[in-house]
Amino acid sequence: MNANALLTRLRGQIPLLVTAVLLVSMFGVGSAQYDGFFSGQVVLNLLIDNAFLLVVAVGMTFVVLTGGIDLSVGAVVALSTMVSAWLVERQGWPPLLVIPLVLLMGTAGGWLMGWVIHVFEIQPFIVTLAGMFLARGLCYTISIDSISITDPQYTAMAQTRIPLGSLFVSPSAVIALLVVAVGFVVLHYTRLGRNVYALGGSEQSALLMGLPVQRTKTTVYAISGFCSALGGVLLTFYMLSGYGLHAVGLELDAIAAVVIGGTLLTGGSGYLLGTLLGVLVLGLIQTVISFQGTLSSWWTRIVIGALLFVFIVLQRLITARRR
Amino acid sequence: MRQQPVLEVRGIRKEFPGVVALDGVDFRLFPGEVHALLGENGAGKSTLIKVLTGVHPADGGEVVLAGDRVRIAGPLQAQQAGISTVYQEVNLCPNLSVAENIFIGREPRRFGLIDWAGMRRRAAELVRELDLDIDVSTPLNSHSIAVQQLVAIVRAVDLSAKVLILDEPTSSLDRDEVRRLFAVMRRLRDQGVAILFVTHFLDQIYEICDRMTVLRNGRLEGEYLINELNQVQLVSRMIGAELAGLDRLGGGKRSERTAPADGAVFLEADGLTRRGAVEPYDLAIRSGEVIGLAGLLGSGRTEAARLLFGADQSDGGTLRIEGAKTALRGPRDAIAHGIAFCSENRKTEGLVGELTVRENIVLALQASRGWTRPLSRTVQEQYALRWIRALDIRPDNPEALVRNLSGGNQQKVLLARWLITDPKLLILDEPTRGIDIGAKAEIQKLVANLADDGMAVLFISAELEEVLRLSHRVGVLRDHRMVAQLDNDGELTPEHVMATIASGADR
Fold this sequence. Notes:
The complex is a heterodimer of chains A (323) and B (507).
Chain A: H1 2-33, H2 40-49, H3 51-65, H4 73-90, H5 95-119, H6 124-142, E1 147-148, H7 152-159, E2 162-164, E3 167-169, H8 171-189, H9 191-201, H10 203-208, H11 213-239, E4 241-242, H12 250-260, H13 272-292, H14 298-322
Antiparallel strand pairs in A: 1-4, 2-3
Helix pairs in contact in A: 1-13, 1-14, 2-8, 2-13, 3-8, 3-9, 3-11, 3-12, 3-13, 4-5, 4-6, 4-11, 5-6, 5-11, 7-11, 8-9, 9-11, 12-13, 13-14
Chain B: E1 7-16, E2 19-29, E3 34-38, H1 45-52, E4 60-65, E5 68-70, H2 75-81, E6 83-86, H3 98-103, E7 109-110, E8 113-114, H4 116-129, H5 145-158, E9 163-167, H6 175-190, E10 194-198, H7 202-208, E11 211-216, E12 219-225, H8 231-239, E13 265-274, E14 278-286, E15 290-294, H9 301-309, E16 316-321, E17 324-325, H10 331-336, E18 339-342, H11 346-349, H12 357-369, H13 377-391, H14 407-419, E19 425-429, H15 437-452, E20 456-460, H16 464-470, E21 473-478, E22 481-487, H17 494-503
Parallel strand pairs in B: 3-10, 3-11, 6-9, 9-10, 15-20, 15-21, 18-19, 19-20
Antiparallel strand pairs in B: 1-2, 1-4, 4-5, 7-8, 11-12, 13-14, 13-16, 16-17, 21-22
Helix pairs in contact in B: 5-6, 12-13, 12-14
């Protein structure tokens, strides 16, 4: 019986292990194939180039763990870049005021979607789809063109390199890792986090056990909204512009990263560290393809698609056997 | 010895659209007693519990807890007031660990963060107090339903419950597990917890309860000490004046049910099999014949029946329907051949809770006619009323929503849906599970009548008594193999069938 229990516990970790093995072997193959691939900076660049995706994926992990989904994240990222650029460049507001405002806006938007989902018992898919159209559309009421940012504080954030020995990371990468760390602590060491898992396990049970289902649900979407807005801020550091066509399809990348990281789309099972690995896998695919040089960048999508298929089937097999 | 009741309910009233579920019910619960709540399906037991736990707000009446009038607004408030409930279906989170399931919502914390080590330690202590030996860090879904139920009780009790409500906790437990549960219940009772116990097993009530309250049709029938009523008196209180079902309770065997040799063979299976589900078996069912399938849960009873309905594809053997060799490609084929299948899982595989009784009843008939020839509203109502009357579905309102009906009445609606299509072979998988004695007797009577009218019936049930009472022949399954087919010649006893099930083991 004890051996059985151990097996069951291990089975929950299989997707995470598979992702870890995949990441290491991809890195191994890349290092063997291409000169200059095997370096710490390649790994750090993964973090630098995908910092905004990582932050968004952390928020998405919270949502998916409850069994929900948030399609609005990409559009909220774009809106955040747009609002930031417009306020800073066209209105001359100081960045230290603009950034908190944008974060507040994202959080409030997410909270509102969560509230609608819970109170009217509507599918998260359709509510966040509405949120996605709304946010994307709002971008174009500000401007249909890209607004580039020349504010010195933004360019400083874009160009600062934090040295790590002979290597370096960007402030954005550090912020993203901080978000992962905070998210991890919240998920595993606070009641909110455990309620998120309980909600994903069985909403009916969570309700009957007297857990604050409504508060948890709205909070989770608020977190996702906050992370999207923060992702948008990091993207403005990276792109130094606001544009309504930024981060098109980012919601799908984020969902892909979460799923590849081993979180069940049905909710209740998964780890934030898995999401970190998932984002790194996505980034690594891109890196390999750019090192390869002759393949079109669309191959990134093809590989992600194939990987997703494999992981979804894997999840299905694991949950089917559990029953 | 009698103190003040810990929980008292006065004149409670609850209506659902089209149904008065509770009509001025009084109820008392004293500390340190195990109190049975009894009644047929639809008598209002579940509704009373849901009112007490705050799932449904009451429409009238008052709840007094430890001398204070309280308003229970939701499950959380009920728990805080000291009323905890363990439901038939375990309402815990299967993905979380045992320890978390006990403590979630009130995890011990240090410096604002969850103290995992402390939580596991305390959970282990609580579990040990109830003589359970489980690793509290394992996920809940790695344990049996029985253990999950005990975990639910541990959680409920640790919420410093004054009142513990157990809503049919024993329906999916085996004998040893029930004994374990009862030991826990006795211990809690001796600690002064008031336990409200709901079950369909009358024997268990006499084994564990001190007092009982009987409900009928949403009204209070009476409150009795356990030795005031014997089982027959109790059943008559539960079903009231309608004593028709009672004579069937004595276990009067249908010795007259000898096989009708004249009926033509409707369906014949020859070496039918599906890998991993059921080994090759032969079975012939004549019109007007009831074949019982007996065997333990998971012995392949349902799997054998699903092959006859095309719900699963066979991968060997042949099937003849009315003499012609047929391969069923799916349930639609089977329905076209006049085969109906009432699945054991009426909630997930049968009824549409959001539709009315009328709509549910005409669903299959409408589907077989095709959407181009709709049944008029008047015809639908005629059908619905006829079957509501024929099966005594309560409430007798065709426009009541099915989800507001009790389990037994839902089962009858499902039966009506299939009977309306006038099938030649009716497959019933556990039609009486989880429903009360009155409805059970009615369904049994109905099956017998249908067979007398020439319908072939395949009757699957875990209750051997019931199988023997109805069947002309009994197929016995063991480990996915049909080990015997016994003629029910009036001398066949449950012991004999049990021996057959057992002897299949030591081959």
